[in-house]
Structure formats: C-alpha cells, structure tokens
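Cross-check.
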Amino acid sequence: MLRHLGPQFPPEQHPELLVGLDRPDDAAVYALDDERALVQTLDFFAPLVDDPYQFGAIAAANAMSDVYAMGGRVLFALNIAAFPEDLPPEVIADVLRGGADKVREAGAVVAGGHTIIDEEPKFGLAVTGEVARELIRTTGGAQPGDTIILTKEIGTGVLIGANQQGAVSEEHWDGAVSQMMSLNRDAAEVSSASDLAQGVHAIADVTGFGLAGHLHEMSELSDAAIEIDLGAAPALGGLSESVAAGFGSGGQSRNREYYGARLTVEGDRELTAFEEALLYDPQTSGGLLISAGIIEAPHLIHELQQRGVKATPVARVIESATGGRLSVRPTETPRV
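Predicted model, tokenized:
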C-alpha cells in the first residue's frame, strides 16, 4: 500500500532525511546540521483501558517511545484526538491531562493539537524530538556477538483482552497499567551515555508485532541472524493465568501466522500457548530492544537496573549469510 510513496521521494534528492520511507523504523530522522537531527513520530489509538486519565497517559507514553527508540529526547508534542459529541467534557479533560502529565514527565511540552468528532474516542501524539547524529540508533545495525536486552515485560495484549472480560486480578492489572504508563526515557538515556553509546548498535521498541516481529525486523535490517532465548523472556504477572484461561488477541493470531512461518524452533519442540504469547503477543507501550556488544552489554544491564529499568537479555545476534533468520531456543521443560 505504501510502495507508491517511495519513488516520489528518492533518498538521493533528500539527503537531509536520514531515516525515512526507504527502510522501516520507529521514527523519521531529519538532519538539521552536521551535529543535530530532528526525530518525528506520530501514534494514536482507541481506548485500551476504562480510566480516561490512564488512557491518555498510556497513549502518550506509547507515542513518545518511538523517539526514545531512535536514541533521542522529546522536545514537544501535539495532541491528536477524536471524541464523540456526547462524551462528558470532564472525561475529555482527563484524557488530555493524562497525556500532558506524561509529556511533562518527559521534560517536554504540549504545544497544541487537533481534535475531530468521531463515534469512537481516539487519542495520541505527534512528537518531535532531537538527537545528536552520532547517537542515532536504528532498528538495523545489530552485530554478530551482540546481546539483545529487553527493558519491559511481555503480556499487555493478552491482559488487556482478559481485563475487558473482568478476568484479571486487580494486582496484575495494576502492574500492566503501570508498565504501559512508564516512559522509556531512562532506558534511552542510559543507552546514549558516553561510556556505553559506542557499544549500543541498534534499538527498537516492542509494540504491535510482538517480540518475534520486532526481532525479525531487527534481524532483517541488520543482515544478521538472531536467536531468542525463550526461557529468559520476562512475563507480566497474570499472563500465564490469562493464557491458561484461553485469552489472546487478534493481533497475536496475525503475528503468529506471519512470523511463525519465518522462525525455526530448535529441537522442533511444540511451543506451549504461554510461550507463543511471549513471542507473538502485541504490546502497548512496550519496552526497548537494545542490541549491545558482548563487552558493553553487562555494564548496560547494570546501569539500566540502577535506574530502576527492567533489563533482561532475551536474544543474541549470530553470524548469518542472509538477514531475517530468526530462531527460538526454548527451555527443556516447556514454560506454561
């Protein structure tokens, strides 16, 4: 559907566009001068939670994550909103307040926006950030020998579906909401620190394509193979119980259908439903995948944990003649 856009904007005619349509990534990057670049992204969606303040905060954190995934910092944001005519003004105000609080937490400012009337509420942000050109990190760039670190737990897609049916405990739901509202700012700042930045080769955030999808994209764009350690993948509390109760999502099914055909499971063992959720569950405001050199990775994990960031090594990059090869190393005892 987007293929016709590329020929209209050939890269050689737009050298300032450092990251654009020619290769998929988390955000666009446009050079300002030899040292600085702008990072631009846009994201919005319909409510995933009942609380309007939480909805606004999650949507804002999710939108800003794409700037952090490029190694940048957020400067300002514009609201993108659609609300029904009969939605109470105080509900709209809470959505906007939730988003504004997250932007302020990021050290940025809401500078305006646009609202339309629609039957289904929708909210998000157009976000502008900046990054030093030497610190730009794309989804491609992972190198053989790298350790890939995930900075949040997996399971928001399943838990959102289960919560809509009233089948998640308050404790587990609060944990999922807290994670979705958490910014990836600290993870991005640690990854860009002067003593670690050169060892960080690629960054992506985990959203709708799930762990398998975003690692496949990293593998393909990096011309390298990636092996996932499924035993290490961290799960949100309540994920196992929700999967056992039969909860999932359409996004998970689509991810399984597409990416399942593009990965191999070592030992040809059948994956459990829980293990498939770890691989394919679409995430909202998920963590960063940070591909770091074997020397720097342990120091990066330590510094992330010192900042209170969940940092789990979940995969490694291996030599490959062609990119896009994804393999899964499951535990001997299936995870359920």
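The CA atoms of residues 226 and 232 lie 15 Å apart. The first helix runs from residue 52 to 68. Passed to J.P. for a second look.
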